[in-house]
Task: inverse folding
């Protein structure tokens, strides 16, 4: 599988990299095999039209704005271009309900599951159930409930040979690590870490990890053989989170960057 990182931060901000050059932190959006988005924080600002045309499925981990904001503009770009096979927008039933009620409600944005006409509407909404695998264009995704401030899942995504885990937004949790631990094909784990250690109260209240709580989750996962890609850092706290992550001294830990392509 090929995972292209369109955005991997917990918000958007222009920062400077280690050489003092500007860097654009974008909200989370991972493109798998060119056809399936895992979260939709970044889509349209990162892909040309021919790349957007190839997207067949969008998996939403939860309804928070930084994970769904690419969907309305993708829909807008795709009007008249889906040729009777609309893009599947997948989420927990409560997530599908929230996105339809609060975004595609005819007031914030048109209902692109019905408009401009039912025949050429660019989107269709597909609820999924916890731990029930869904088949998508050569890959299988298993949504697994995680512990966030709103209903949320992470995903185990696999084909015949490889698998990776995507934590979504989560504080300390259990089930997804159990499934990851058992998965023999597991080649990578993408795990959120949103706040520095000294903001642990903020992390706890908002349902996120710090480097310190991440350490405990990695023990539960129990797969030191697998590279762990850290994402969803809040851009305002980048330096402090990186310092805390380095202090963990874990050789399999990597920080994700926008534009990275990971081949599994
Ligand atoms: Zn988020
Ligand atoms: Zn969230």
Result:
């Amino acid at each position: 599988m090929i995972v292209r990182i369109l955005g991997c931060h917990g918000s958007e901000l222009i920062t400077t990299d280690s050489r003092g050059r500007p860097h654009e932190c974008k909200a989370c959006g991972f493109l798998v095999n060119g056809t399936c988005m895992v979260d939709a924080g970044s889509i349209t600002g990162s892909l040309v039209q021919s790349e957007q045309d190839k997207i067949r499925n969008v998996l939403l981990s939860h309804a928070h704005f930084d994970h769904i904001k690419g969907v309305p503009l993708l829909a807008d770009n795709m009007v008249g271009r889906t040729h009777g096979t609309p893009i599947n927008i997948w989420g927990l039933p409560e997530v599908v309900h929230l996105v339809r009620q609060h975004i595609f409600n005819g007031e914030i944005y048109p209902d692109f599951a019905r408009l401009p006409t039912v025949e050429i509407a660019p989107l269709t909404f597909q609820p999924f159930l916890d731990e029930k695998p869904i088949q998508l264009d050569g890959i299988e995704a298993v949504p697994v409930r995680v512990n966030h401030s709103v209903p949320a899942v992470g995903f185990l995504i696999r084909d015949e040979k490889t698998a990776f885990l995507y934590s979504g937004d989560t504080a300390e949790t259990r089930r997804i690590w159990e499934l990851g631990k058992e998965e023999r094909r597991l080649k990578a784990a993408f795990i959120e870490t949103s706040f520095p250690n000294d903001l642990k109260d903020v992390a706890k209240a908002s349902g996120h990890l710090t480097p310190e709580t991440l350490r405990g989750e990695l023990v539960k996962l129990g797969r030191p053989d697998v590279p762990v890609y850290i994402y969803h850092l809040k851009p305002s706290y980048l330096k402090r989170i990186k310092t805390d992550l380095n202090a963990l001294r874990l050789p399999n830990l990597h920080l994700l960057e926008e534009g990275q392509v990971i081949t599994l």
The pocket of zinc ion (ligand 2) is lined by residues 62, 64, 148, 169 (CB under 6 Å).
